Amino acid sequence: MEWTFWMAPGLLAVSFVTALLIFPLDEEQVRLRTALNLGGATLKLILVGVMAWGILTGHEFEARLSFVGELELVLRLDYLSLLFIVLSAILWFLTTVYAVGYLEQSPHRSRFFGFFSLCVTATMGIALAGNLVTFFVFYELLTVVTYPLVVHRGTGEALEGGRVYLLYTLTGGTVLLLGIAWLHSLTGPVEFVTGGQLADLAVERPATLRLIFLLIVGGLGVKAAIFPLHGWLPIAMVAPAPVSALLHAVAVVKAGAFGIVRVIFDVYGIEVADGLGLLAPLSLAAAVTILYGSVRALAQDDLKRLLAFSTVSQISYVALGVSLLGPVATAGGLVHLLHQGMMKVTLFFCAGILSETLGIHRVSEMRGVGRRMPLTMAAFTVAGFGMIGVPPVAGFISKWYLGLGALEAGQEWVVPLLALSGALNATYFLPIIGAAWFRSPEADWAEFDGPETDWMLLFPALATALLSLAAGVMAGLPFSPLWLTSFAVTEIHGP
Fold first, then answer.
1. Category of 122 on φ-ψ map: left (φ > 0), alpha (ψ -120 to 50) or beta
2. 98 to each of 46, 138, 170, 198, how far by Cα in Å?
3. Which tens digits make up the pLDDT trace of 53-76?
4. Whole-model pTM above 0.90?
5. Across the strands, what pairs with 76?
6. How far is the CA of 202 from the CAs of 149, 195, 269, 271, 439, in angstroms?
7. Gyration radius of the chain's alpha carbons
8. Is residue 228 classed as helix, strand or coil in its secondary structure?
9. What is the pLDDT of residue 447?
């Protein structure tokens, strides 16, 4: 077998083996655990770099394993998966550094980092899945391995958050399985193929395919936090900050959004989905979610809950972009998978720093904090501007392409939607930023003149803020997120 056969399984094996090595470690074995965490994350970055170079130079990466009967587990790299694994590898490395610093004095660290690594395995499996069965296996594995992270603190509030998380995600998984099984009974194993493979069936049984689409996208919509399926996300904010960053920027909500992208482009095909009248309802649901999340964020004083409702709003830009016909809108939606991840992980990193260093959990407690923690708030400010859509931060690029794509597709109503969403984002982010920089502090920490915070917390926040800024400033250059997205758009829509 060629070396390309082993690359995708190897990418999964790195984090899986890291988890197996971490679980049995004693709590006192800090250096070994840290070395395993950072070593695994670094090796994963290297492997992703090799695979990115490989696919860009014409190599094909695919591995097949017999599963049950005629079913196969298929791992395959295409340009869509490349977007997801590049995002995951980079942000996971930085989140690992952050988590090591954040949990330095916490109990049960070996358990946390073991499940943390398993979460990486599941996410990479979702990204590389080459058919619906493989996608579903890793999608549900992600639910199982993230639950211990959500309830890590073991408090009553954490356990309740975990219960709600499981209730939503397992219900969504059951609905998803029903849709997949129904489709399988009609077509046999469903591979991810550009343009889909349901054109003939769409002519013969259009009503059936509409119902199956509703089941599959409804199941995926739970993790993608599409209204009204979003209720678990704000409640799950009882988890530690690295887990919140994981849920919002790298793993869970991205898995749901990525699944919707796969179903539209690689199961149904964009033309079949449009012909069945499936895209207009999806774009409407995305529009409602965008506005709903922002309106709910306005009323939040708890900082992490505010960021959670912001995620509900922001992740639906992806569904909106891919439900509008045309390559420009697709580019806007897909690149937001990357841009939202970088900006949102920055915000959660900063929220965790404020919580752990100063005990700040609420927006109303942030007055003057920019004087005490200027670097942290500089990172928060960049990411907040990006969420609003202020140029040249990455969020502006996403919204610009979504707006242009909407006009190209004759969907002019999207432009005022984007403007209103940006105004709502500004309404809840700008007062926070203004108070942090220009109001006088009213807390004991105001007189402290020591270091801002631990470097392992500050470095990842600054790095992701700079990535968010660089992704906007250098959007037109090679190796930018937009440049990488262009390959996926070409693969979907043609040159």
1. alpha
2. 20, 25, 29, 44
3. 999 998 899 998 887 777 889 999
4. yes
5. 62
6. 42, 13, 11, 11, 60
7. 21
8. coil
9. 61
Residue 161, SS3? helix
Residue 173: name the closest of 210, 140, 130, 214 by CA: 140
Nearest to 184 by CA among 135, 251, 235: 135
Q: Where are the alpha helices (DSSP H) in 57-78?
A: none
User: What number of other Cβ atoms are within 10 A of residue 278's Cβ?
Assistant: 20
pLDDT in tens, 306-327: 998 998 999 999 999 999 988 9
The Cα-based distances of 297 to 113, 135, 245, 466 in angstroms read 31, 32, 17, 25
Question: How much of the chain exceeds pLDDT 70, in percent?
Answer: 97
Handedness of CA 184, 139, 78, 269 (dihedral sign): positive
Amino acid identity at 39: G
Token output for 118 = 């398993």
Coil, helix or strand for 64? strand
CA gap 292, 237 in Å, rounded: 18
Compute the distance between CA of residue 50 and CA of residue 59 in angstroms, rounded to an integer.
11
| Size (the chain), residues | 495
Q: Distance between CA 476 and CA 472 in Å, rounded? A: 9
Q: How far is CA 321 from CA 401, 410, 422, in A?
A: 9, 13, 16
Instruction: Return d(Cα 431, Cα 434) in angstroms, integer.
Output: 5
